Structure formats: C-alpha cells, structure tokens
C-alpha cells in the first residue's frame, strides 16, 4: 500500500513533552469528546462518571510525561495546536481552578481521580493503550480503547487511515521513490508537493504557507529556549543548558568551536522547551523535536539558505519520516529511541543533503548512515520525564546528522553497502527484539540506575 501520510501529519504543533504520551492522548480525549457530543440526551442524563485508564508505557511513565493532564485537556475540548501552555501546566494541580466536563447540558466532575494508572503489562494491540469510558452506575454508556502509536498519531480497533485521494506518485520504499525520480527526472520536494496537493486538495501556496508556519514555530521554540534559564519542571531538578552554551559560543574565539557550540545549543533549546511542556513541532516526535530545528537554523544562519530552500529541505526530511513510520515505527514504546532520535537524525541528515544540493544517492546514504548509528538505542527516560537522556540526545542526534551528511558525501555514493530500506528493516527487527524494559517504560537502563536522582 502506497504511503499516504501528509506533511502535516508528521509535522504537528502542540505542547510537549511527548507526542505519544501527551499529544496522542490529548487527541484521543478530543476524539472521545466529539463522540460524546453525539450521544442522545437520555444517555447523557443518566451518566455519572467520565474516566480514563492508562496502560503499559502510558501508565509507567504517564506522570512524568503529563499523560493524565493531556487526556483530560482533550476531554475538555482543548486542541494541541491552540492550547495555552501555562493553563496546561496547571491542569489537575491543586493550584488550578475547579474544572468540569461539559457535554451539552450535562456536567461531570473533572479531577485527579478522572485518570487511573492501569497495569504496565497487558495484552492489548499496542504498548501505548488507553481506555476512556462514560458510565452510569458502573455500566458503560460509551467506551473506546485508543492506541497512541507514536508521533501524536492515534488508532483504535477497526481504525482505518483517513480517506484521502491517492498520492500522485506512489511509493513505499526508498528504492521505489528513487525509481520515480529517475523515470520522471524529478527531485524529492517536487514529488512530495505533488502528492500533498493530490491527497489533501490544498494548493501549492497553501502548503507553502503551512510549511512556513511550521518553520516559524520551530524558530520561536528555539528562540524561547535560547533565552530561558533555570531548572526544568519535575522532581529531577535538571537545569537548562542551551542559554549557557550559547553564551559560551559568544566567548569562543575558535570559529569551528563556536559553530559547534551554537549547533548544540539550538537542539538543546528546543528539547528543553519540549521538556518544559511548551509548544514545539513533532519532527517526527516531540521527544526528538530539537534535531530538525537545529539543522534548520544551521542552514539558515551558516549556509544562508532562503525560505524556499528550507521548505524543500522540510519536504525531503519528511519523506524519511514517512518511510520510517510506514515500514517500521517512530514510537519509542515500540522500537526504542532509535525510532525517535534515530529517525529525527536521519531526517536531519537528508535535510542537510537537500539544502546543500546533494544527489539523490548521497541524500539517501546520509539518512541511512544517521539511522545506522542509532540502531539499538533504547528508550529509558529517568522517572518518566522527557529530560534524561532525551534533551542531550537531541544535540547528539543533530551533530550525528551533520556528520552522516559529511560521510555520505565522501567517496562513491553508488558503493554504499547498506541501503536506507535495509536499515529501516533492521531498526524494526531490533526494536522487536528489544526488551520492553527499554521501550519507554522506565523499567530499565538509565531509568533504573538513576532512580535516586
Ligand atoms: S529516550 Fe528517546 S524515545 Fe525515549 S522518551 Fe526520550 S527521546 Fe523519546
């Protein structure tokens, strides 16, 4: 089946810190809220409880990720793109004003008891499962089980992809895409643009406008992060580093050192904003949201890339995310951090190759190299917060992306031994073999060894 993911399925705007544990559950809450509006008045009149149960990774790390707040925000009708981060921070805390769920004329209590943290081990179809139920005297009136499958996407039993028109150029592997490019004499951004127009019905200029908005939100989160100091929220007490690194860069007299310091600071700035629960862009997820803005800023500032070039870079990077999502996963709960920072780094490597005008082969090789050197990377966030190792991992992913592009542009690109399609398959197989301790449950790795921090 051809890939039918839209650019704006992949690049989504919302509050952090996690696309699977924050944005996905918020979207599930919002979906359930819409279903509630369709209930008849008789059912609503007898309803006495609206409740959520989180399972698996959502239960294990949901507190640190703000999953409880997120799903309640969705049930209150809040949209990820429009949510006020300060109001979101307060939700379900003792300092917040009293809230109620309003469903037509019916009002039901909304408090900390709304969300229950269920078993970590379960037999549901996806690691990130949540159930939402409207009940009357213990009996369900409306019940839905949701799977938060990564990158803010949700599914349910019987879910079908959004009905979209067929993409103009159909492919599901990098090799398939390369064949189209060779036959038609096109480049990746042209194919992505043609497909986006065909699938969504948007015009080229509307798509460009939306891409510009994505670039603006990336830039504003980066700027906010660069200008904020102090500790990140939560019990770890981790301090922000981006502003300090940027200051050190100003004092650095060695030019390459200065660029490297700033490049790290860019990635940290956005990752720290995400960890603070502020608005970022999924690229492909929130945990990995710092990698792409770092290369975008690098391209703008040091390679003097103009708006059009940046848009084309975003479209090329998106194809890498599409292929990873379609053929493997971009969910840390499914395949570990290789699917988040690894895929973000591969997207960023392809972005740099596109911006620098590299050939199709170099571009695919750059993405392959970046992902190859994240294979096996586990997801073990300390205390369930998207902070350790996540924040620094964004800086490492960005630096590796640049290096992957440099390595790919040396030598004969036709002699690359591992293809991008192969490395995606290896990522999936490795993720399947990975113990669930290392897939966003905080039951292994750093999460266990740093439990006292
Ligand atoms: S370790 Fe990686 S996959 Fe896990 S929460 Fe952090 S960024 Fe996401």
Report on the architecture of this protein.
- It comes from Dethiosulfatarculus sandiegensis.
- Belongs to the iron-sulfur dependent L-serine dehydratase family.
- One of its GO terms (molecular function) is L-serine ammonia-lyase activity.
- Keywords: 4Fe-4S, Gluconeogenesis, Iron, Iron-sulfur, Lyase, Metal-binding.
- Its cofactor is [4Fe-4S] cluster.
- The chain is of the alpha+beta class and 453 residues long.
- The protein has two domains: 141 residues, D-3-phosphoglycerate dehydrogenase, domain 3 (60s Ribosomal Protein L30, Chain: A); 276 residues, no CATH class.
- It is built from 19 helices and nine strands.
- The strands form three sheets. The chain has a five-stranded mixed β-sheet.
- Strand 7 and strand 8 form a beta hairpin.
- Helix 2 packs parallel to helix 5 and helix 11 packs antiparallel against helix 12.
- The longest helix is centred in the middle third of the chain and has 23 residues.
- It is globular and about 70 Å long.
- The termini are far apart.
- The model has no long low-confidence stretch (mean pLDDT 95).
- Bound molecules: iron/sulfur cluster.
- The site of iron/sulfur cluster has 13 residues, from helix 17.
């Amino acid at each position: 089946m051809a890939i039918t993911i839209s650019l704006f399925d992949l690049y989504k705007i919302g509050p952090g810190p996690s696309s699977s544990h924050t944005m996905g559950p918020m979207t599930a809450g919002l979906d359930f809220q819409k279903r509630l509006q369709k209930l008849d008045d008789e059912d609503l009149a007898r309803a006495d409880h609206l409740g959520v149960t989180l399972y698996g990774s959502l239960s294990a790390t949901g507190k640190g990720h703000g999953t409880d707040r997120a799903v309640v925000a969705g049930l209150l009708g809040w949209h990820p793109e429009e949510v006020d981060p300060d109001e979101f921070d307060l939700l379900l805390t003792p300092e917040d004003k009293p809230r109620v769920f309003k469903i037509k004329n019916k009002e039901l209590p909304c408090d900390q008891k709304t969300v229950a943290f269920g078993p970590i081990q379960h037999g549901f179809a996806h690691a990130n499962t949540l159930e939402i139920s409207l009940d009357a005297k213990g009996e369900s009136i409306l019940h839905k089980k949701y799977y938060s499958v990564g990158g803010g996407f949700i599914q349910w039993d019987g879910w079908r992809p959004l009905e979209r028109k067929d993409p103009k150029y159909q492919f599901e592997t990098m090799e398939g895409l390369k064949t189209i490019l060779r036959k038609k004499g096109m480049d990746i951004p042209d194919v992505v643009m043609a497909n986006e127009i065909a699938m969504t019905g948007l015009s080229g200029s509307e798509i460009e406008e939306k891409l510009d908005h994505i670039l603006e939100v990336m830039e504003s989160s980066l700027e906010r992060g660069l200008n904020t100091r102090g500790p990140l929220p939560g019990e770890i007490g981790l301090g922000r580093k981006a502003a300090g690194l940027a200051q050190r860069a100003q004092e650095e007299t060695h030019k390459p050192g200065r660029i490297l310091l700033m490049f790290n600071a860019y990635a940290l700035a956005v990752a720290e904003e995400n960890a603070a629960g502020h608005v970022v862009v999924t690229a492909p997820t929130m945990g990995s949201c710092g990698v792409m803005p770092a290369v975008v800023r690098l391209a703008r500032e040091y390679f003097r890339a103009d708006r059009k070039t940046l848009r084309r870079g975003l479209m090329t990077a998106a194809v890498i995310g599409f292929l990873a999502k379609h053929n493997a996963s971009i969910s840390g709960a499914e395949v570990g951090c290789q699917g988040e920072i690894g895929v973000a780094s591969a997207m960023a490597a392809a972005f740099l190759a596109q911006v620098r005008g590299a050939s199709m082969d170099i571009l695919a090789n750059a993405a392959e190299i970046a992902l190859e050197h994240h294979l096996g990377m586990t997801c073990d966030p300390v205390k369930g917060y998207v902070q350790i190792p996540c924040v620094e991992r964004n800086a490492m992913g960005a630096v590796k992306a640049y290096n992957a592009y440099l390595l790919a542009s040396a030598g004969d690109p036709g002699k690359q031994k591992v293809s991008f399609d192969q490395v995606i398959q290896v990522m999936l197989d490795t993720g399947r073999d990975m113990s669930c301790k290392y897939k966003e449950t905080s039951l292994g790795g750093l999460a266990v060894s740093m439990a006292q921090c």
